[in-house]
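wait is this the right file?? whatever heres the structure
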């Protein structure tokens, strides 16, 4: 048998124990696009437990058969592997069920309980239960209470493990986040709460930890002595799609900065954990988030830029401005772009700016972190020899084209000594054989295994809200500072000025 050298060293994990998964919001967008395609791919790779069932719960009046038909279409459209394999689908569909009902009615929870008991009996799910909240956030409290009151999940349920998975946003602001956390912890122990931030499930995000802590050469320079600044870009070319109502109440600051961006920042900036045990990793992340400087109102005015897209062209298509999107107020001041300068008040990062920028309707979809180093203290080559030389940088390409680039100087071939910046590249595509699994595959597997390493802990979420809250407060008090940008551009001019303010000549990378 020939072996594929690119897969050498890959380790397989233990199969998860028998489990039933209840998805509230089972006929919703996330179930179609992410949850069910991820489960199908786990089935395809033999990673679902033997005893498994998924129960979708929503108000839509589907039968089990209707639901299976609908989800088959979703998998055909959204699965990363195509075409859908009939035999695998049939095996998966036989473990897929649906219960229509409103979460405001206690009887819905009684019926769910009955179906779960039947799964234990017929499919060997052994009393282990995962409840996935993928509904509108305003329904979270009644679902959590419904589970507790019906004793089908949480502390008062004793027939097996029971866990709850909470989709972001975890609250609307600091106060509501604390209230939600209290409510969840009244019913479920913190160790059974899994808050999903799907960025942490991305291979390229986890690779930040590998790059930093599996290599000896980067850590000594990973600090304010050597790093000039860090840039994190989360750019999307899509608009808000059909999510006008949600976006109006969230904005980019809650949708991306409070969670995805700050979680990535935490991985870039945290201290090395002693072990890769969940609490060791989460302690370090919480610690660095705690050290992020809380902006004063007047600092928000200069260090944070709020933008909103106007009409324009993206990928050759003319698109409307945010205010003309469905379910958006014609005079909305909601942010679809945020650029911010944050600093971290600790020994490692004192005075090193972390620039974050994220926006909808930018020219392309790209997420990357660039750690830009200080220039060499002295260049001996003189004058023109250095033209075209940029400082060293490590660019972590989170998506697409996942990988890492190291930018360094090399001699230009020829009879004179001239140097120029060149790139050294690592790409997942060529280094490893397998397609990258979707983040939800990894995270669903982790919930089933009870491994919380890649899920933000309560205090991390709280720290992230503490960072964002002064910005929300300032924006609520001052509606004036909104900058418009044309769709298909890299955001408002104010975003460019932000990065240059403290160091003239500094500019955002063009990914
Ligand atoms: C979600 C946001 O959490 O992340 C969306 O709600 C955004 O607005 C999405 O489009 C981006 O995810 P990804 O994996 O495509 O970068």
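ok assuming it is, sequence goes like this
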């Amino acid at each position: 048998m020939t072996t594929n050298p690119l897969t050498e060293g890959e380790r397989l994990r233990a199969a998860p124990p028998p489990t039933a998964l209840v998805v509230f919001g089972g006929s919703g967008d996330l179930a179609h696009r992410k949850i069910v395609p991820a489960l199908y791919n786990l089935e395809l790779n033999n990673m679902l437990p033997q005893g498994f069932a998924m129960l979708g719960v929503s108000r839509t009046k589907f039968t089990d058969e209707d639901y299976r038909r609908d989800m088959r279409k979703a998998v055909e459209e959204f699965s990363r592997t195509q075409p859908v394999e009939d035999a695998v689908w049939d095996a998966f569909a036989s473990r897929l069920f649906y219960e229509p009902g409103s979460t405001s009615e206690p009887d819905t929870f009684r019926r769910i309980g009955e179906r779960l008991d039947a799964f234990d009996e017929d499919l060997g799910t052994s009393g282990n239960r995962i409840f996935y909240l993928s509904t509108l956030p305003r329904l979270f409290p009644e679902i959590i209470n419904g589970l507790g009151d019906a004793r089908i999940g949480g502390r008062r349920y004793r027939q097996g493990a029971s866990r709850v998975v909470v989709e972001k946003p975890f609250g609307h602001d600091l106060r509501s986040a604390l209230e939600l956390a209290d409510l969840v912890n009244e019913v479920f122990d913190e160790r059974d709460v899994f808050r999903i931030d799907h960025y942490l499930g991305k291979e390229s995000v986890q690779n930040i930890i590998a790059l930093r802590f599996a290599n000896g050469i980067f850590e000594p320079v990973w600090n304010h002595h050597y790093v000039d600044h860090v840039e994190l870009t989360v750019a999307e070319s899509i608009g808000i799609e059909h999510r006008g109502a949600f976006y109006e109440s969230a904005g980019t600051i809650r949708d991306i900065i409070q969670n995805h961006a700050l979680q990535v920042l935490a991985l870039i900036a945290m201290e090395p954990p002693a072990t890769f045990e969940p609490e060791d990793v989460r302690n370090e992340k919480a610690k660095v988030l705690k050290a992020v400087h809380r902006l004063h109102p007047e600092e928000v005015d200069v260090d944070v830029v709020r933008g909103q897209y106007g009409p324009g062209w993206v990928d050759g298509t003319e698109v409307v401005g945010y205010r003309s999107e469905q379910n958006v107020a014609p005079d909305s001041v909601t942010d679809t772009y945020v650029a911010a300068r944050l600093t971290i008040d600790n020994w490692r990062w004192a005075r090193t700016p972390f620039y974050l920028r994220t926006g909808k309707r930018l020219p392309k979809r790209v997420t990357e972190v660039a750690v830009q180093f200080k220039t060499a203290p002295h260049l001996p080559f003189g004058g023109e020899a250095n033209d075209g030389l940029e400082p060293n940088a490590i660019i972590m390409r989170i998506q697409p084209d996942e990988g890492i680039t190291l930018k360094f100087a090399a001699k230009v071939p020829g009879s004179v000594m001239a140097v120029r910046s060149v790139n050294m590249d690592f790409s997942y595509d060529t280094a490893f054989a397998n397609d990258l699994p979707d983040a939800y595959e990894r995270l669903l597997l982790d919930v089933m295994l009870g491994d919380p390493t890649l899920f933000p802990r309560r205090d991390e979420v709280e720290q992230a809200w503490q960072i964002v809250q002064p910005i929300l407060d300032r924006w609520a008090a001052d509606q004036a500072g909104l900058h418009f940008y044309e769709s298909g551009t890299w955001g408002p001019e104010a975003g460019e000025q932000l990065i240059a303010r403290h160091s003239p000549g500094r500019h955002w990378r063009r990914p």
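The pocket of 6-O-phosphono-beta-D-glucopyranose is lined by residues 236, 255, 367 (CB under 6 Å). so i think its the right one actually
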